[in-house]
Each structure stands twice: as C-alpha cells, then as structure tokens.
C-alpha cells in the first residue's frame, strides 16, 4: 500500500507558511491530511486547500499527535520549543528557521545539492537561509567540476524575507513618499532588523544591514551565509564572505557572486554549460538580447536563475555571476517541501 502522510504547517498564517500551503497543494508527496497550526490569535481562521476548507488550530504540543511531517516557519523560539515535541510524537521536522541550522546533529539540506545528508537526520532537518540556498544551487555544479577556493557574495534581498508586515510597511512608505511625505518623516518600525535599536525606511532606499551586527561587524545574516555554505558543501577550506543588503523589492532575492575555482580548465562557456544542466537552475544569459535574471520574473517560480556569467578581468580562475530566486519559494517554502518529498523518495520518513 502506498504511504500517505499527515503533514502539519507551523506558522500557517505567515508569508512563508502561506507559500508552504500552496506548495503542498502542488507537491508529489502523497498526503492524507494537512493540519494548519499557528498562534492562539490566529486559531479559527479558515484557509482553502485543494478545494477544502481547513481551520487553523492553536499550536500546542499535542498538535503533533499522528503527524508524520511537520514544516516549521514560525520563528526560532517556536522551533526551539515545539520541534522536539513534534519529534517526540513521531514526526519528522523540516525547520525553516535558523535555530537548528548549525547544530552538528541536524542536516542542513538543499535537495539538489546534498540529499544524502538526510540519511543522518535524527528527527529534525534544517532548511538553509534563503540567500544561501540560491547561491548553493548555482555554485555546486561548478564546485563539483573545478572546486571552489573563494566566494564573495553581495545580496540584494527583498523585504518579504522580513515577513508580511515588512512588505506592508514598504507599500505604505512608498505611497507616503510619493504623496509628499519627507524621507525623515516616514514611519519605520521593522527594518533593517526588528530586534535592533534603530529602524529606517526601506522605500526608495537600500539598507546594508540584515539581522543584527555580530562578530567582526558582520551581521548574523552574513555569518549565516558564510557558515551554512561551508556546512552544506562539507568544506571548511572554502573562503566565503558576504555583504547582505535589503532593497525595496517585494519578493525575489538577487545576488552578485564572485568565485575563484581551484582546478585548471574552466572557462565561461563550460560554466554556462554546467549551470544549464544543473538541477533546479535555469541559465538566463544572453547579453546581446539583454537576457539576464530579474527579481520580478522570478516570482512564483521554483527555480534559481543564473546569468551575467563573466570571467574576471585580472584573475584567470575568477568568475562573476548574477543569481536570482523567489526567496519565499526556493528560498523557503518550496525547499522545505522538496525536503519532505526527498525524505519520502528515500524512505526516510519515520512512520
């Protein structure tokens, strides 16, 4: 008999949780039942799923009774408290927060890149940072062919990465500014980071801070990209550095990436060929036709788009590229559902 799974979505009313529900409606994962979980204030709201009306339930430990797979996207504090409760009741957790990512006992997985890591799971699998995911999808085929010595990435991240309220704040600020409100009088309560001392407008602005500042004046977001890349690729020798910037785009993260490969024999044509064949990647690179990835055209697409591939002017083994993906899909909801699909395909869901 074909296995059927009971799937829970934790944080069902958030920006990522909403997309998780959409992805579950399209997934190949054989689903018996979907349970939507959120805070007490959201309990009772109704959501349509594949023609059915589902009622959101309050998240409590016993919510995970008879749940096989639990997709979490409700913040690290919730994951810390409730993911072990889900595992205790027999569920496998796919966590979209940063809480478990660098835990040595928790696989950090991009299914196109390191699905074998799922075999080591002990009940919890971590979904990487959105910006890390799309970068890894683009770089892994190059690493496999030529090795990677150095990665320098600058991100241009959409406000949807900070949640629905940040998206709403961008819209209200943009409207106010266009209607004559001076920049220094725009209401800002969320960005660049909800937990920091000051907040700045994002409308018509660029904020070189995502998350709070940490060691060596890099933000946590930048450290996430550095550390997660090394963990996923299982190579601490790769030199990685990031500068993460929030820009006034609703959805779709963009990245300017510079790499230096280790082995001889690479060139632009060969790297383009690798990208074109890579699972989950789409090559969009024809300068003669002004074809390159854009945030707007990545929305609601599951792929990672790669273009503007150029050899560095001075470094023979250096290459530049532009990488774009829908941060709510491949960067979060879709990657989580892909992990669930891969767990099923590898018979790693504990039921």
UniProtKB/TrEMBL annotation:
BP terms from Gene Ontology: 'de novo' L-methionine biosynthetic process; diaminopimelate biosynthetic process; isoleucine biosynthetic process; lysine biosynthetic process via diaminopimelate; threonine biosynthetic process
Quaternary data: Homodimer.
UniProt cross-references to HAMAP family, sorted A to Z: ASADH
Entry coiled-coil feature ranges: none
Functional summary from the UniProt entry: Catalyzes the NADPH-dependent formation of L-aspartate-semialdehyde (L-ASA) by the reductive dephosphorylation of L-aspartyl-4-phosphate.
Entry annotation: catalytic residues: 130 (acyl-thioester intermediate), 253 (proton acceptor)
GO function term, MF aspect, one: NADP binding
Signal peptide: none
Gene name as annotated: asd
Matching Gene3D superfamilies: Dihydrodipicolinate Reductase, domain 2, NAD(P)-binding Rossmann-like Domain
Source species, domain of life: Bacteria
CDD domains in UniProt: ASADH_C_bac_euk_like (cd18131), VcASADH2_like_N (cd02316)
Residues that bind NADP(+): 13-16, 41-42, 160-161, 327
Protein name: Aspartate-semialdehyde dehydrogenase
Domain Semialdehyde dehydrogenase NAD-binding: residue ranges: 6-121
Pathway as given in its UniProt record: Amino-acid biosynthesis; L-threonine biosynthesis; L-threonine from L-aspartate: step 2/5; Amino-acid biosynthesis; L-lysine biosynthesis via DAP pathway; (S)-tetrahydrodipicolinate from L-aspartate: step 2/4; Amino-acid biosynthesis; L-methionine biosynthesis via de novo pathway; L-homoserine from L-aspartate: step 2/3
Record-listed E.C. numbers: 1.2.1.11
